[in-house]
Amino acid sequence: MPIEYRATDRNDLGGPGEQKWLGLPLRPVSLYYSKTANTGRRTLIVEGLVATGTYAWDTRALPSGETYRVIVEATDHIGEVGLDVSELFTIDNAPPTFLVEANPPLSRGENVEITVRSSKPLAEAPAVTIKQQGLPAVPIEMRAAPHSQEIFKGLYQTDPSADGVAVVSVR
Question: What is the pTM of this model?
Fold first, then answer.
């Protein structure tokens, strides 16, 4: 999960009377998470980040379905601390499920349109293969339906030399 943050100090803005030695050091930012509104009860995610950036937080070890807050904390050269707290959010680490449809559902040699519906929006098309009886699995090029990150379509060209059931795999 990407965390975008930006820390500033009034002594780093280039204004009159600025005292650089009081501003932010090179790596002033620490990120924490909390399961409560009490930001004092928190767990360190990472420390020593530059003042502005994006951090890719690996949330796979956290339980799905629980609510969390992210706390961004910056400490200047003299130890003054500023922080910002996110709104509550829920982590969902469960993989998507897929519903596969074939049109036509029974083919006598004609091409078959494969539609895959994902339970969650996907950043890219799922990997789809079809294994026709007696033949090796064949990858199917899937494309997102217009304005959708959950519906993907591809065309399977059947092999007339193979008869029987075809198995569609999605991952």
Answer: 0.67
Let me know: does 153 contact 127? Beta carbons within 8 Å.
no
The token duo for 22 is 């009081």
User: With contact defined as beta carbons under 8 Å apart, do 135 and 116 qualify?
Assistant: no
The CA dihedral of 51, 53, 59, 60, to the nearest 10 degrees, is -130
- In angstroms, the first-to-last Cα distance of the chain is 21
96-109 residue pLDDT tens: 999 999 999 988 88
Contact between 68 and 32 (Cβ < 8 Å) = no
Produce one character per residue of 140-169: b if its CB has 16 or more CB atoms within 10 Å, e if not.
bebeeeeeeeebbbbebebeeeeeeebebe
Separation between Cα atoms, residue 61 and residue 41, nearest integer Å: 19
**Type of residue found at 136:** P
Query: Confidence class of residue 5 from pLDDT cuts 50, 70 and 90?
Result: very high
